């Protein structure tokens, strides 16, 4: 294991030197800024960075990285700070490098259907830009209004359309990165075909800023989907959801297949601003979406729905008839994470192959309910691609520390089951600090050794987001 050879705190003189590398006013050290930029959406860690720096150009990023190497100062990259694994948390005196001022769309290439983006471009900004060109950027999730492309690349963000479009990785045509030694690399030259050895671009996707920082990304766009239509179907039990998925996949090209439990619906309806999908309540719900390209497709969906009802897999259901109805159905699923955030939930983001989902969920649910009969356990997620979100809500009377300590006990058992099923301890939220100590449940010792060796190549002094992914 590489020792952490970085300073914990920067000196006043070092901060003064840092200020000379960027525009005036682009280094902040006030308490508010340190608090705001030192954290992401995780709630376990107390932010404690030394300073926040806002570069505006690639040259400035390079200068910051060289300065950090010279003084052995740890850098933490910061995008929209919507992450859920504490990969962008600076809790140990690091300097946060925020990409808020590198937020321009640089170029659009019509024939290649690509957009050159600076890392601070917000996901929604790219989605709207694509729309203006009559195209589509398909990676989508609830935090698209604040998450940034650089962060999406750092975590290989997934979301609600993975079943059809895959993860962020699929949409990165090329990358410019500043490595941990301050070198600028241009990776893949935005080519579709490029058989010239190792594809280093892929290494930087999902690396959580531990190898280098993305300073420019060329993102691919896709044909815009037509007449998206959603259905929400109520099922009598969890086991019915998979045959429903199978039945619909046999008839339609789904753009999404999500699920949530009735407990999740309780929380959503308690907000008072989202209509119930239908009058009855069922233990689980599937939300599926497809392009209703013509009447045949819509009729095929309705016939499949009827088949599922006849089989007893579906008890009730609804299909959107307008854009407004489509959006309201999506709110039932997309609002869950934000709605429950004030319960300080303990989160798990786990995955297995689709066929194993029912027995996997049953095994984990047994462990969790046996150990926490008094806790509210919420299940939801992207079931069409095998990704489940398990959220345990903190009872009001229990302190945060005690609650997380009690949840940590069961972590080990949950991850043993993940390992038994050859699954992942982090399907889409990344490893960061929250899952760092459990990496061995999803990656072999030999694999982790290779990962550390790769880090040493790109970041010889260990200054790039140290303590994330592995210690
Ligand atoms: C989602 O799918 C997000 O809603 C957040 O990935 C999941 O908060 C969570 O556990
Ligand atoms: Zn998710």
TrEMBL record:
<dbReference type="GO" id="GO:0046872">
    <property type="term" value="F:metal ion binding"/>
</dbReference>
<feature type="domain" description="FAD-binding PCMH-type">
    <location>
        <begin position="45"/>
        <end position="224"/>
    </location>
</feature>
<dbReference type="InterPro" id="IPR036318">
    <property type="entry name" value="FAD-bd_PCMH-like_sf"/>
</dbReference>
<comment type="subunit">
    <text>Homodimer.</text>
</comment>
<dbReference type="InterPro" id="IPR051264">
    <property type="entry name" value="FAD-oxidored/transferase_4"/>
</dbReference>
<keyword id="KW-0862">Zinc</keyword>
<dbReference type="InterPro" id="IPR016171">
    <property type="entry name" value="Vanillyl_alc_oxidase_C-sub2"/>
</dbReference>
<dbReference type="Pfam" id="PF01565">
    <property type="entry name" value="FAD_binding_4"/>
</dbReference>
<dbReference type="InterPro" id="IPR016167">
    <property type="entry name" value="FAD-bd_PCMH_sub1"/>
</dbReference>
<protein>
    <recommendedName>
        <fullName>D-2-hydroxyglutarate dehydrogenase</fullName>
        <ecNumber>1.1.99.39</ecNumber>
    </recommendedName>
</protein>
<dbReference type="GO" id="GO:0071949">
    <property type="term" value="F:FAD binding"/>
</dbReference>
<dbReference type="GO" id="GO:0022904">
    <property type="term" value="P:respiratory electron transport chain"/>
</dbReference>
<dbReference type="InterPro" id="IPR016164">
    <property type="entry name" value="FAD-linked_Oxase-like_C"/>
</dbReference>
<dbReference type="GO" id="GO:0051990">
    <property type="term" value="F:(R)-2-hydroxyglutarate dehydrogenase activity"/>
</dbReference>
<keyword id="KW-0285">Flavoprotein</keyword>
<keyword id="KW-0560">Oxidoreductase</keyword>
<dbReference type="InterPro" id="IPR016166">
    <property type="entry name" value="FAD-bd_PCMH"/>
</dbReference>
<dbReference type="InterPro" id="IPR016169">
    <property type="entry name" value="FAD-bd_PCMH_sub2"/>
</dbReference>
<dbReference type="Pfam" id="PF02913">
    <property type="entry name" value="FAD-oxidase_C"/>
</dbReference>
<dbReference type="InterPro" id="IPR006094">
    <property type="entry name" value="Oxid_FAD_bind_N"/>
</dbReference>
<keyword id="KW-0274">FAD</keyword>
<dbReference type="InterPro" id="IPR004113">
    <property type="entry name" value="FAD-bd_oxidored_4_C"/>
</dbReference>
<comment type="similarity">
    <text>Belongs to the FAD-binding oxidoreductase/transferase type 4 family.</text>
</comment>
<keyword id="KW-0479">Metal-binding</keyword>
């Amino acid at each position: 294991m590489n020792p952490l050879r970085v300073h914990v705190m920067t000196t006043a003189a070092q901060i003064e030197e840092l200020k000379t590398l960027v525009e005036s006013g682009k280094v902040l050290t006030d308490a508010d800024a340190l608090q705001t930029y030192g954290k992401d959406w995780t709630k376990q860690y107390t932010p404690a960075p030394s300073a926040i720096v806002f570069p505006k150009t690639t040259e400035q990023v390079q200068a910051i990285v060289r300065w950090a190497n010279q003084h052995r100062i740890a850098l933490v990259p910061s995008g929209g700070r919507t992450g859920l694994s504490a990969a962008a948390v600076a809790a140990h005196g690091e300097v946060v490098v925020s990409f808020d001022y590198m937020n321009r769309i640089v170029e659009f290439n019509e024939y290649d259907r690509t957009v050159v983006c600076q890392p601070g471009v917000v996901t929604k900004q790219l989605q709207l830009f694509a729309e203006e060109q009559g195209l589509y950027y398909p990676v989508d999730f609830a935090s698209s209004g604040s998450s940034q492309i650089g962060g999406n690349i750092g975590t290989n963000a997934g979301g609600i359309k993975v079943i059809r479009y895959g993860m962020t990785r699929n949409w990165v045509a090329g990358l410019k990165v500043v490595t941990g030694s301050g070198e600028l690399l241009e990776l893949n030259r935005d080519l579709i075909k490029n058989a010239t050895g190792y594809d280093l671009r892929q290494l930087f996707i999902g690396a959580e800023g531990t190898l280098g920082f993305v300073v420019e990304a060329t993102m691919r766009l896709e044909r815009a989907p037509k007449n998206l239509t959603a259905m929400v179907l109520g099922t009598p039990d969890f086991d019915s959801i998979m045959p429903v998925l199978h039945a619909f996949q046999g008839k339609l090209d789904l753009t999404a297949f999500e699920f949530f439990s009735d407990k999740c619906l309780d929380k959503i309806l308690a907000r008072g601003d989202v209509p119930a999908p239908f009058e009855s309540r069922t233990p689980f719900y599937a939300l599926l979406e497809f392009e209703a390209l013509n009447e045949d497709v819509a009729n095929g969906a309705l016939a499949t729905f009827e088949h599922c009802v006849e089989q007893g897999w579906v008890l009730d259901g609804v299909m959107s008839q307008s854009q407004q109805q489509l959006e309201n159905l999506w709110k039932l699923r997309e609002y869950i994470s934000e709605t429950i955030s004030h319960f300080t939930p303990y989160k798990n983001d786990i995955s297995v192959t689709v066929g194993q989902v029912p027995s996997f969920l049953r095994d984990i649910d047994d462990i969790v309910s046996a150990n926490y009969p008094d806790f509210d356990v919420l299940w939801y997620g992207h079931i069409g691609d095998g990704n489940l979100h398990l959220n345990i809500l903190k009872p009001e009377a229990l302190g945060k520390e005690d609650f997380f300590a009690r949840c940590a006990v069961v972590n080990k058992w949950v991850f043993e089951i993940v390992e038994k099923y050859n699954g992942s301890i982090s399907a889409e939220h990344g490893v960061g600090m929250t899952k760092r100590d459990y990496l061995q449940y999803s990656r072999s010792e030999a694999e982790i050794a290779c990962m550390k060796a790769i880090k040493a190549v790109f970041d010889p002094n260990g200054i790039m987001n140290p303590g994330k992914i592995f210690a």
